[in-house]
Write a structure and sequence with these properties.
single chain; alpha/beta; 8-stranded mixed sheet; two-stranded antiparallel ribbon; 38% helix
């Protein structure tokens, strides 16, 4: 059976993907193909490169990516992603879709045309960075003749590349927007606005998945903060165990 795995965006909430993947691994469920947007593209790429959920979690925590960002004083965004590219090259030095251990598709948004763009071959790291460039926070990425931003703007749960190819699809959405999401800063306003814009389409796609993993409590966590990383990871693990354990017979 060919198992497809779709991973949503969600900033630091994407650490819940790693907890969910650990649970799936323990249940003996291994993806044949992965798709991802934004944080999901980061987790998806490192997973497809062969790293374990625990290793990825510890690495992301120790890297201090926010401290590696370079200020970009321009009218398009606040931060550049140059240092982040160097970090990815350390862990995926071949920088190629073709050399990954699991086939991967990454979704970004062409901000000029307002459409989803899917990358599954050629240069890998530019595609990851483009897919993760939250509008208004990170500078848009010029790549492959396009101006690209976060894939979640138009497709936060990219199940389309899996449909018609995979026999069984697992969707993990870490961006449910709750009415009680804390608003304490301009960043919180921006993030909740993005979550509200994408939650309906992500929810509809999740309904089409054979296993739908969505830790609803996660809306209480700031998507731009790593301070509760272990709690987010645990939420993903526990929710995936509950949702997937009862459906093992359908998958294996």
């Amino acid at each position: 059976m060919k198992i497809g795995l779709a991973l949503s965006g969600g900033g630091s909430r994407g650490l819940a993907h790693l907890g969910a993947l650990k649970a799936l691994n323990e249940l003996g469920i291994q993806p044949s193909m992965i798709t991802g947007t934004s944080a999901g593209s980061i987790v998806g790429a490192l997973t497809a490169a062969g790293y374990s959920p625990d290793f990825i979690f510890e690495t992301i925590q120790s890297l201090g990516i926010l401290n590696s960002l370079k200020f970009a004083f321009n009218r398009f965004g606040l931060f550049k992603m140059e240092k982040v590219e160097e970090i990815f090259l350390k862990y995926i030095p071949h920088n190629s879709f073709e050399n990954l251990k699991i086939p991967l598709t990454i979704c970004a948004t062409d901000i000029e045309k307002g459409e989803a763009v899917y990358f599954s071959q050629g240069e890998l790291i530019k595609a990851i960075i483009a897919s993760s460039s939250i509008p208004g926070i990170f500078e848009p990425i010029k790549f492959d003749g396009r101006v690209l931003v976060d894939g979640g703007v138009v497709n936060n749960l990219p199940t389309e590349p899996l449909e018609g190819i995979c026999d069984f699809i697992i969707g993990i959405n870490v961006t449910p927007a709750g009415n009680n999401m804390p608003i304490n800063s301009a960043r919180d306003v921006l993030m909740k606005s993005l979550y509200l814009a994408i939650r309906n389409t992500s929810g509809e796609k999740l309904k089409r998945c054979n296993i739908a993993i969505e830790p609803h409590e996660i809306y209480n966590y700031n998507g731009l903060s790593m301070s509760k990383a272990k709690e987010i990871y645990k939420l993903g693990y526990e929710n995936a165990m509950r949702e997937a354990e009862g459906k093992l017979s359908q998958v294996l």
